[in-house]
Amino acid sequence: LSGLDPAQPYFQGTPIEVRLDKSDAEFVDVIHTDSAPTIPNLGFGMKPAIGHLDFYPNGGEEMPGCDKNPISQIVDLDGIWEGTRDFIACNHLRSYKYYSDSIIYPDGFLGYACPSYDLFKAGNCFPCPEAGCPTMGHYADRFKDQVKNDFTKLYLNTREAKDFPLWRYKVSVTLSGNSKVEGYVNVALYGTDGNTKQHQITKGTLKPGNTYTAYIDAEKNVGEVTKVKFLWNNNWVNPTLPKLGAATITVEVGQTR
């Protein structure tokens, strides 16, 4: 059974006979997309973990792209009817949109087991364990033989619009150069299956010899990494023409460690 943002009002906190529960089927996976409190946030979805695997994309409360202004949302690419529904219940409806996208992307929507979304964002639950990460949506049942008795909360990030899946990488850059500067460092990944856009690793004071690490959610699964493009900018014209390079760049793939 797959629960697509199961209802919160009149169901959250009720006995298991009343609501969806892991005892309802051999395998129950749940996608939580609108689990903020009904009062005052108008959340329609249930917050507690209730299945064998509970996925909380983007933290499970506010979905990217649902904060567009009302006009742009109602006059949507998918038509006025779809846009109006999204304006009223955008977070709630993301659950079925993620599910339908997951059919097309069998390797997408990896869920990282983590105590909280904040810890996931900080990189504490990266990479996937040796047994791999479950995938949210249609292919979640590929993981059913590894499910334990306790509840498993899984976190991931998605894009604002179709196509929704993102792939997580840990990128560490050790800088080289003669003097520290103010600016930012961007990195793009290239691989056997394509390349990502530029992702910012750090901004502020850039000091040669220091290592800067970021967890990036890339819009592309690049496959086997073959090349990394390093770019830096100091934001303004500097007459001393400072030079900065990368002594090393390390990329760790969440999916395959």
TrEMBL record:
It comes from the Eukaryota. Pfam families: Lipase, PLAT. SUPFAM superfamilies: alpha/beta-Hydrolases (SSF53474), Lipase/lipooxygenase domain (PLAT/LH2 domain) (SSF49723). It is found in: Cell projection, Neuron projection; Secreted; Zymogen granule membrane. GO terms for molecular function: galactolipase activity; lipoprotein lipase activity. It is a peripheral membrane protein. Pathway: Glycolipid metabolism; Glycerolipid metabolism; triacylglycerol degradation. SMART domains: LH2. It is an enzyme of class 3 (hydrolase). Keywords: Cell projection, Cytoplasmic vesicle, Disulfide bond, Hydrolase, Lipid degradation, Lipid metabolism, Secreted. Its EC number is 3.1.1.26. It catalyses: long chain 1,2-diacyl-3-O-[alpha-D-galactosyl-(1->6)-beta-D-galactosyl]-sn-glycerol + H2O = long chain acyl-3-O-[alpha-D-galactosyl-(1->6)-beta-D-galactosyl]-sn-glycerol + a fatty acid + H(+); 1,2,3-tripropanoylglycerol + H2O = dipropanoylglycerol + propanoate + H(+); 1-beta-D-galactosyl-2,3-didodecanoyl-sn-glycerol + H2O = 1-beta-D-galactosyl-dodecanoyl-sn-glycerol + dodecanoate + H(+); a 1,2-diacyl-sn-glycero-3-phosphocholine + H2O = a monoacyl-sn-glycero-3-phosphocholine + a fatty acid + H(+). Residues 167-257 form the PLAT domain. GO terms for cellular component: extracellular space; neuron projection; zymogen granule membrane. InterPro entries: AB_hydrolase_fold (IPR029058), Lipase (IPR013818), PLAT/LH2_dom (IPR001024), PLAT/LH2_dom_sf (IPR036392), TAG_lipase (IPR000734). GO terms for biological process: lipid catabolic process. Belongs to the AB hydrolase superfamily. Lipase family. This is Pancreatic lipase-related protein 2.
